[in-house]
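Follow-up to my post from last week.
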Amino acid sequence: MPELPEVESVRLGLASHVLGSRIEAVEIRRDSCVRRAASPEAFAADVSGRTIDAAVRRGKFLWLVLDGGELALSAHLGMSGQFRVHGAEPPPPHRHCRARLTLSVRGGFFSLDFIDQRTFGYLDAEPMVATPDAVAGGLGSPLPAVPASVAHIGRDALDPALRRATVLAQWRRGTRGIKQVLLDQTLVSGIGNIYADEALWRARVHPATPASGLSGRAAGALLDATREVMGQALAAGGTSFDALYVNVNGESGYFDRELNAYGRGGEPCPRCGRRLERAVMGGRSTHWCPRCQRAGAR
DNA sequence: AGTAGCACCTGATTGC
DNA sequence: TGCAATCAGGTGCTAC
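User reply:
Got it. Predicted complex:
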């Protein structure tokens, strides 16, 4: 469920609570929440006793830089992952709590819970690896490296170091529809199903338009639209329809009130009044206005 | 090489 | 009321 604005809200919350703290204890409550590590015990051994130096994000991928920066505690929220911060005496773990970390800072202790109903999310201990374009890392990162599992992920739409001309050329290559291309995290990361539909609506591009048929100008306007909509969503604390997405303090964002297309199939287009359409494209539910977003327009 | 399809899960909602 | 089908914000692997 979480896309770039939601993951960035989580990153900001983590940064405000865990930077400079030390990982004292690790309780894995569901083994499969640790994917790459050889075992839950190996994960715990890798991260225990280490200090958290930074909280970094690229697209929807999030990681805590440990000690010297050669190791990361990486996390992906999948469809339903959350982090929740509790004080020295945390409540009993939530039913979907997959891991509980105990952290210490200046003699005080607190808990960090990883909660994930659908279990598509994960935690891992990973080496940091250099990437060809790792000039400045992702948002929040001063480091020239990313966790191994993020090496194939493109810079995200809000990253100042995004190579605009390069990604627009990559977008327009191949045979896929533009909706599928927007969701390709190896080109521009961070755009998920909600913000893909919203950006296409803003830029007046039909989701099934062959990406190769977009003009450079239209592709550029679409990239700008992804940045605008995700920037505004971030300012509103992200999008949330229910208790499945909350920040580290358990609070929901408000951007769902500002969605123009996503989830509004059958409702009037906020721009022209025409009934919005809904269909499945590339296995994902897709929403658009058949009048504002004409196939082949622009 | 690029792309489509499916697998991975749990839970809420909808329809019969 | 019960039960099955459908849907949900993501990613990675496999087979074309």
